[in-house]
Structures are given as structure tokens and as C-alpha cells.
Amino acid sequence: MQFQWYPGHMTKAKRQMQEDIKLVDxxxxxxxxxxxxxxxxxxxxxxxxxxxxxxxxxxxxxxDERKNEGWTEFFKKKGYYVVRMDARNxxxxxxxxxxxxxxxxxxxxxxxxxxxxxxxxxxxVVGIPNVGKSTFINTFAGKACAKTGNKPGVTKGKQWIRLNxxxxxxxxxxxxxxxxxxQSVGLRLALIGSIKDDILNIDELSLELIQILREEYPGxxxxxxxxxxxxTPAEMLEKIALNRGCIKKGNEVxxxxxxxxxxxxxxxxxxxxxxxxxxxxxx
Length: 283
Ligand code: GDP
Prior knowledge:
CATH superfamily of the largest domain: P-loop containing nucleotide triphosphate hydrolases
Number of helices: 11
Order of helices and strands: HEHEHEHEHEEEHHHHEEHH
Bound molecules: guanosine-5'-diphosphate
């Protein structure tokens, strides 16, 4: 899914989500493990006030495991339940189920104290475009069970997926919009491929990536492209082009091709497990 960047569309999505959140006890928020800050929208803290909160560090298969651990602790300290996962992988869902049960236990106990019995806990998934919401719902629901269909009253028009006898999940995720105003947020979203490439300057983006990798993950470029990590990022891009035979007719270096290549290899994990944000910086 690509960004649809119309204010009207966003306002409508936000209003819809405000309505949906009223129906649930637990908000399941997906963030991208490589950029847990830039892939969040802080509005969700206001929208989800008073609800149990679960953060899923998704695409953790592409992120740096040590940073995943750091981010897990970071969000736990803030009072969220947290699970690292790969939304495509059924194996990840067991842990998610267990944490949902834990998060719901509090709710069920609170209900009981108020004299409410046997009311299933309801949850919804939220997150920015491309973070893996649909993939997660499909994998999770695939493991679980059939949709419950419409019920009279509050659930009118809503489809709930029954996960087990205690938990129901709204089948449509809430779309949050990233905080684009911040330049570094836009850059990081672009680097992980959340923003349509044809509206970006790929050459510049690849130079930013090279700069970051050289500082934060020294040796990665050397290993992949057999080159010394020295000179300007542009000079390094040229070495990558030569290493990969990105040459145009007339023996000219094809920078655009090399730029696209290095970005693709980063996004698909071929450069290794790399995170672009550090919990220490946020803490
Ligand atoms: P949505 O817009 O939030 O619903 O995102 P999608 O579910 O459509 O996922 C966007 C892309 O990310 C798809 O190509 C998915 O296959 C991919 N994806 C989703 N979750 C993961 C994950 O945990 N790891 C990896 N590597 N890819 C994922």
C-alpha cells in the first residue's frame, strides 16, 4: 500500500478510528522494528487513552536483534505490552496470543469486580501504511478462527474475528499517518520503503543510507561490495556501481542503478539486520 496523502482522507480515517477505538478494550499497535519512533504516530496515545496497549515490533526479522531487545525494554518501561515479530510467520503468533491473554486478564478481572461476566475482550490493530497490519491480521486470524459476522447493537456493520472464547479482533485495521513534518522521520520512512520511490530522489536517498551505514554499521558495505569504506558517500556509491557492473553505454557509471540496488539490498535484508533508530537516543 502506498501513501495516499490527502488531508481529507486522513481526517476521515482518524475519525473512523476514533469511533472504532471506542468499541475495543485493547489497542494493538504495529510499528516497524527498524524505526520504532518514526513509524509511530503519537496521536495514538491520546486516541488509545484508557485502553490496554500492545506494541508489536514488526519486521523484526529485518532489524538488529540487540536493538530489538532495547526497544522491547524501552516500550515496556512506558507501560506497553510488547512483542517482537515477523507478521508473515505463523510461529510468531503464539507469543502474541499469550501476551493478548495477559493484557486481557487485567480487563477481565476488572470486569468481574464490576459484576460483568463473560464479555469477550475486543481488540483492534492500528499502524501506519505498509507496517504489516493486513499481513498480521491474516496470519493471526488464519491461525485462529472464523469471523463472527455482524451482531445487533454496537457491532453493527463491523466484522469481528473471534480469536478464542475470550478475545475478538476487529477485522479492519486503523490507519495512522506518520509525522511527516519532521525531516528525519520522512527520510527514515523513505529508507525502509514506506514512501513511494517515484516521488523520491533515489540517488540522494542512497547517499544518506551509505552515510548512516558507514557510521552505525561499519564493515557492512565493505563485506557486501568488497570495497574500502572511505571517501565521500558519492565515491562509495561509485565503487558499489563498479563492483556490481552498473555501467551505462559509453562506459559511464550508472549511479541510478547502483542507488536502487543498494536501497533494495538494504530493504530486503541482504545487507544484514539493520536498525535505523536507537532506544538509547530516545530514552
Ligand atoms: P499494511 O499496509 O500495514 O496492511 O501492510 P501489509 O500487511 O500490506 O505489508 C506490507 C509489506 O510488508 C508486505 O509486502 C508484507 O509482505 C511485508 N511484511 C509484513 N510484515 C512483515 C514482516 O514481519 N517481515 C517482513 N520482512 N516483511 C513483512
